Amino acid sequence: MAHAPEMPEKYVCTACQTMHAGTVSKRTDSGHQYEAPAECGCCGETELIPEKSWPHFQP
Ligand SMILES: [Zn+2]
């Protein structure tokens, strides 16, 4: 099986829309498991959503 380079999951701050790389919460056989950063490093907002959910996000 080919090894695809692992891309960290990304999270979008709902306040300033800055993209943040997820924090590694667990290491698994297939890679890493990510969780949203505790807070946005730019504005301090604590609600960050996965990048793939962003297009569906309704404030
Ligand atoms: Zn922010």
Residue ranges: pLDDT <50 for 5 or more in a row?
none
Q: Count the DSSP helices.
A: 0
State mean pLDDT (0 to 100 scale): 90
As laid out across the biggest beta sheet, the strand order is 2-1-5
Biggest beta sheet summary: 3 strands, antiparallel
* Percent range for β-strand residues: 35-45%
**Distance, first to last CA:** 41 Å
Helix/strand structural class:
mainly beta
Could you give the count of β-strands?
A: 5
How helix-rich are the residues, as a percent range? under 10%
Ligand kinds = zinc ion
Give the ordered list of helices and strands. EEEEE
Shape: elongated
Tell me the Rg in angstroms. 13 Å
Count structural domains. Answer: 1
Protein name: Small CPxCG-related zinc finger protein
Organism: Natrinema ejinorense
TL;DR of this structure?
This protein has strands at residues 10-13, 19-21, 23-28, 31-35, 48-50. The protein is an all-beta fold and 59 residues long.
Fold and architecture overview:
This protein is mostly beta strands. The protein has one domain (10-56). The protein has no helices and 5 strands. The chain has strands at residues 10-13, 19-21, 23-28, 31-35, 48-50. The strands form 2 sheets. It has a 3-stranded antiparallel sheet, with no helix packed on it. It has a two-stranded antiparallel ribbon with strand order 3-4. A hairpin with a 5-residue loop joins strand 1 (10-13) and strand 2. It is elongated. The mean pLDDT is 90. It binds zinc ion.
